[in-house]
Amino acid sequence: MAHSFAVRVYYEDTDLAGIVYYANYLKFIERARTEWVRELGVDQAKLRAEAGIVFAVRRVVAEYLRPARFDDELRVETRLLAQTGARIALSQDVMRGDERLFSSEVTLVCLTETGAPARLPADIRQKLCGATD
Questions:
Q1: What's the total number of domains in the chain?
Q2: Could you tell me the pTM of the whole model?
Q3: What is the predicted pLDDT for the residue at 131?
Q4: Which string of DSSP letters, residue by residue, matches 106-121?
């Protein structure tokens, strides 16, 4: 099941050519991941404060397929691909209507605040299992 997050392109998101600056797609998908995790019931601030655990991006593979422009209404679709004890693999697409503009695969890892690898807590693994229904 895909999580959907709406994004409008603002003037500040565009470059001199009037299209979305490439790095801003990474911001769009970051916002969508944050909302996806929140909707799963994971409080990232509480996770850090109580367990000392944070999520970090380990890898991003991105394809820029078509340009988005000022005032476009976009949608970021996030899907869980896989999870292990300490990693989460996602696909994230930026859509304008039915047209895919940007496609990515993102690997998140679980780390302690010092940067050491950590296992995902069991309750979070359980919540992620529900994300594939």
A1: 1
A2: 0.92
A3: 73
A4: EEEEEEETTS-B-PPP
Helix (H) or strand (E) holding 64: strand 53-64
Active-site annotation holder among 15, 43, 71, 123: 15
**Domain around 62:** 3-130
Q: For 2-43, write each residue's pLDDT tens digit.
A: 999 999 999 999 999 999 999 999 999 999 999 999 999 999
Q: Check if 13 is active-site.
A: no
Asked if 33 and 90 touch (Cβ cutoff 8 Å), the reply is yes
Q: What's the whole-number average pLDDT of the chain?
A: 94
Q: Whose structure tokens read 């404060």?
A: 49
Tokens 């109580």, residue? Answer: 50
**CATH code at position 37:** 3.10.129.10
